[in-house]
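Holo prediction. Input below; ligand is iron/sulfur cluster.
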Amino acid sequence: MPKILEGIGCPYCGCSCDDVRVVVSDDGKKILEVENACAIGTEIFLQATNHERITRPRLRQPDGSYSEISYDEAIDFAAKAILDAKKPLMYGFGSTTCEAQRAAAQLMEIGYGILDNCASICHGPSLMAFFDNGHPTCTLGEVKNRADVILYWGANPVHAHPRHMSRYAIYPLGFFKENGFTERTVIVVDPRKTDTAGVADYHLQIKQGHDYDLLNAFRMVLYGYESDIPEMVAGIPKQSILEVSKILKRAKFGVCFFGMGLTHTDGRNHNVDIAISLMRDLNAVSKWSIMAMRGHFNVAGPNRVWCWTYGFPYCVDLTKGDYAHMNPGETSTIDLASRDEIDLFINIGTDAAAHFPIDAVKKLKKHTWITIDPNVSMAAEIADLHIPVGISGVEVPGIVYRMDNVPIQYRKVIDMPEGMLSDEEVLTGIANRLEELILEKAKKYCLDSSESISSESVICT
Ligand code: SF4
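Structure of the complex:
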């Protein structure tokens, strides 16, 4: 009899929907049906068992081909590479569990490396603005039950977060919003006529890169400087700004969801900073929250795990040994790569080769490149070593943080192919092997007697 699993988490976008229903074959090896997920989420589950998988690590040979090696050999290779590297960097983690992110932190502590995650090229500016200005926020449950005005700024959830509107923000019937979308006003600020803009009550088709100007104009209205606002701001007529300002002020519970269109246009963290300030001003007359539209299902996870471990959410430099520090621009992956400071790159749970500027990829590729990922991505294809692992959220259970920073326990749906390891197991294996190597090196070069030393007591120079 096929098994029916309820309340499964979807391992794709930052909505982290945990109401998916999956039907698994009676031998537990194949996913037969998926319900409640969007088209993308459904494919994530179905593709997990319906395509050829690489199930063993592959090491690049001198002739450029790959040859299969065992997990032990792969772990040994990775540990030796970290030991030999002056500045190893581990990047990615959008599609890994928090358990793997914690294991990675332990590994980079032992290896004196740098930890960075996808926020470095997506919501890093948002995190910097949160440092500077704080941010009033809420959970997606509160949005569903209370929100009457939804403002999407530089985000297109119809395509990037397909169930955001139907599960949380616009269409669901909430406790205090029993009539769903008929009780909500939707405003979209976007330079393009996106499909999200197509369902909005108001679409402010802003001039690209002028977000700061428009946010400032809204603040001027709130502070009573309407007469000083020019007839046109950022491509938006003054009349529309005044009209939308009234809706913002009258909201009983408004939420601003912002995406890359705000964080990666001119101004970057300053755009988010002034958006937060607008929320603060609005909270003097109504009730508003603000939330980043995080991309992957657990891209928020490393930010939380590393914050509680080191106090920093991304670009965490552990090379000093005694303390961690973070300085985007100095310790961020693209900048380090562009300056050719990284001599070992470990890509995990993302595809850096597909997302980074080509110059950064070329610089990283000059040195050893290891990819830990279930999929044959571009980052896997150019790697010196590709270690395939179980698919988080499908074959590997664990904690993930939704875009509103609510932790959710994801369950396993099917078993990994026999003999495969999870990313947490691989990272822990590398850390253990690295400790052995450090101890061996210490015995060989540093001390005469190995009787009284442990890896914790050794500082290899
Ligand atoms: S909206 Fe996102 S998390 Fe939800 S089912 Fe679709 S891809 Fe999965």
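The longest strand covers residues 3-8. That is the main takeaway for now.
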